[in-house]
Amino acid sequence: MTFLLRRAAMAVIAIGCLSLGACDKNLVKVSYQQLGNAQSWNLENKSGGDANGMWRIYMLRGVVNDGENAKPFTFDLSKVALKNGAVVTSAGPMLHGAPFMLPVNFKAPVAPKVAYTVPYGSGVMFVIKEDGDTDKAAYSTLTYKSASGESVLMVPLDSKATPAFGQIDQAFLNVLHSKQNTYENTYQPSGDKN
What we know:
Elements lengths: L1 H19 L7 E11 L1 E4 L2 E4 L3 E13 L7 E4 L3 E3 L10 H4 L10 E4 L3 E3 L8 E7 L10 E3 L7 E5 L7 E2 L4 H17 L8
Parallel strand pairs: 1-11, 1-12
Antiparallel strand pairs: 1-4, 2-3, 4-8, 4-9, 5-7, 6-10
């Protein structure tokens, strides 16, 4: 009986490793944090709103390509998504949120055994529009639409934090930028605390 229990436990661990990619020797970790939520935005004399949806504002902390058998990897912001499939928005606040926002077509090549962080002075935030969700305090985790041969684990820095809520404008982006600085000083690109 003990043998069968051990075999069952090993099978559960193996399935967990495969589903999470945690046992993959090519695993790339992408650390991020959700900073805020908004139902409207007003930037550069342009604005928009949606009472039946929410813009989720995130920051990219780092991309760590240090798996045992790491190979070259290119982080592609367009592959970041919510679990429901919603991807980084290519309009609205992403286009008018400079200097806080990453470019919509942001890509970063990350060599093996290297940790990448967005260069100082560049925007690190990005926005995903979630239709049908109006929960102002919701924390939404992210996934990565990996290509064949890629194994990417999205690592939230603090999934228990309540995102700020407001209208995406310069004042709100300044508040989120302050939160971003706190996370950058508290967490390493891998998602580990300093």
